[in-house]
Amino acid sequence: MNVAKCWTAALMLAWPAIAAAQTLRISPFPKGGKGGTLRIEMSAPDYSRPAAIQWTVVFPPGVSGSAGGTPAAGKTLSCAAVPAEKKLAALRCVLYGGQKTIPDGTVASIRYTVSGKPPKAEAARLREVLGASPRGKAIEFSPGKR
Fold first, then answer.
1. What is the CATH number of the domain that holds 76?
2. How many structural domains does the chain have?
3. Are strands 138-143 and 22-26 parallel, antiparallel or unpaired?
4. Model-level pTM?
5. Are 48 and 102 in contact (CB under 8 A)?
6. Residue 118 · residue 31 · CB < 8 Å
7. Which of 1, 42, 45, 51 is least crowded, fewest Cβ atoms below 10 Å from its Cβ?
8. Which residues are CB-neighbours of 59 under 8 A, at least 6 positions away?
């Protein structure tokens, strides 16, 4: 096998890790209580920081949510309830505004209310995470795990 084929094979194997090096995580639920705030945290290499991010938070039964707090980097946070499977509630959020990139760390806060049994710490999850560069190009994200 020649050198070019080796490099091509190496890049093909590494590409999924390079393409989805950006992660978005949601903080775990605190123990007990009837409500509080969950943090949405981002981690991305300097070369692929987004200027906007969209995600969906899926809550366990008996929990609902809304946008809360001041978003990062002078951006605007807009959230709306969307249909989810079974008895789950979901909230789709978009963090946007201008071409300035979003720094690592907490990018948004989501307020939640518990109307039933307190959820397990890992109960909320992120889905459908999308990012956009300052020039409008798509940036792949992987939902991170806590």
1. 2.60.40.680
2. 1
3. parallel
4. 0.79
5. no
6. yes
7. 1
8. 65, 84, 88, 89, 90, 91, 112, 119, 123, 124
